[in-house]
Amino acid sequence: MIRTAHVLVVSTRAAQGVYEDRTGPVIVDWLRERGFDVQLDVVADAGVAEAMSALLAQHPSVLLTTGGTGVSADDRTPEATRALLDVELPGIIEEVRRRGAAVTPTAVLSRAVAGVSGGCVVMNLPGSTGGVRDGLAVLDGVLDHLLDQLGGGDH
User: Fold this and answer.
1) Chunked in runs of 10, what are the mean pLDDT values of the chain (155 residues)?
2) Nearest Cα to 60, choosing from 127, 120, 132?
3) Cα distances (Å, whole numbers) of residue 124 to 66, 113, 141, 153, 154
């Protein structure tokens, strides 16, 4: 069975071509190494809710976002995500912040969330490559188990 994943880069500047995002490719590579068929999209911060809804309508196994998790006025990724979740998984994000804060004190400012929408694992990652690597390291230990449970597997 082919597992599908979407990576959504949330960045107004990247969407406008002002700079090239470096986090999306890191996530895409990580997912491909784990056997996922991956699609990458870039959206301006203001369009995150609509983009996430459209991607979830395609019923991927995983939807990972990067960016828009800080405290700037246009950082709306956590709010958009939370509105789409059936179940929130706060322990995943708590661990990402814990690991990040050990190296970068500002990691505690992330407002990222993770959870399940339908049968899809959804997780916000920061807009930095270091934060993305921290988040993927946490997800690495639980993703297969989580997907197995969502597919009806035993605990």
Assistant:
1) 93 94 98 98 97 98 97 95 98 95 93 97 96 96 95 79
2) 120
3) 6, 6, 16, 25, 26
